[in-house]
Structures are given as structure tokens and as C-alpha cells.
Amino acid sequence: MQPRPGRRLSQAHVARLTGVSEGWYRALEAGRRQDFSEAFLLRVARALRLSEAETLTLFLGVCGRRPPEESPRDPRHLPEGVKALLDQQVTYPAYLSDIAWNVVAVNGLMAEWFPWSVRPGANLIRWALLSPEAREQMLDWEESCARTYLAMLRVAANSNPDNAELRALVREVLDADAECRRIWARDSEVVEHRDGHVFPYHGGREIRVISHVLLPIQRTDLRFVFITPLLDGDEAAA
Description:
CATH class of the largest domain: Alpha Beta
Number of helices: 12
Largest sheet: 5 strands, antiparallel
Number of domains: 2
């Protein structure tokens, strides 16, 4: 770690500021240890007054993961650019969801195609796996919907073991539905995002659609998803 002009601190000084021995901090700079806690790395970032990008670099270099959010973000407070992009999407259904698949915002077409998405407390996983409506709208429900969503839920729960909302969602789904319990016990498939997933949708007439998942750089805790009809070229690629 190279100090910037005007910010020069000795290893002994940084060690005192972060509450560790000089040898422990020296091991960090020398790259000799890989078991530093997130709390320690955050103290180092504060002591050295690292920027957000520098803190990210520190975490990725030392432990290969992003720094934790120091305080939970309110999903209702959307960056203007993200909200504008959603509102201006008038060709296809689109929505924003958080890490536990709570629906944060939708555009007009999403509300028209999937009215459940504007109901209070709308949650994609809960609707897709537990709602009778989903089993009617999503044709071939087990193959095109349930297996994929349960695989996504498995990845999210394992990636965020401290997230109580995700743990509760897993319990709710498995406690409520025998088919979901059967698929969960039988399959070991894992899926991080449903990006590029093709599924048949009823909506008054059968249509095959494809979902696209974007992660807004301003809010990496959100997913921006839009749904497009499957065109002939897409069908061939699939």
C-alpha cells in the first residue's frame, strides 16, 4: 500500500489506529496472511481514508470479496438514473427487485402483464413458487419456473448466510409446498440469475419470453430485469 503525499503514516501508527500489533499490520502490507477480518479491513480503510474504489480494491486483493455494506440501503430510495431508465422502458415489462426478490419498482407493462407485481409486499420467489396464479401463467411450471427459482434461492441463501429474510423465505417456501420440497431435495442445481432464461407465459395466449438481468452499478444490491418476447433468432440460439 503506497501512501499518498500528505497522508504518510508509519506501519506502527496505522497498527495503533486499527487496534492490532505492528507485525499483524505489516503482514497485511506484505500480503503474507489471508485471514484478516472484514472489521479489521474496514478499520484500515478508515485509518488510511481510502476512497470507495480503494476500499473495494483492498478487499478484493486481500480476501477476494466486496466490502460489506456499512448500513442497509433503503430500496425505495432509487438513484434518479435507475428510476428514469425503468420509467422510460415502454417497450417491454421491466422491474427492480432486491437481494431477497422483493419487488421495489415496476414499469407500466410489468404491472399489466404481471398484476401481482404491484400488490403490497410483492415478492418474485413467493409468487412464482407458491401462487396458484403462477402455475397457470407459467406453462410447464416445474421445468420452466420452479427448478430455476429454487436453484436461484439455493445460491442466494448460501451466498448470504446472515440474511434473515432469505433464510425465512427458504423456510416459507419449503414448509408451504410439497412439490417445492421434492424438487429441493432431488435437485442440486444452482443458478445465480435468471438472465437469458426462456419460459412460456400464458397471459391470454401462449408466448415464449426471455428475461434479462442487469445489475445497476449505482445500486449493486438491486436487480434490473426486463422481459422480451422470444424472436426467431433468439429461438435458434436457445
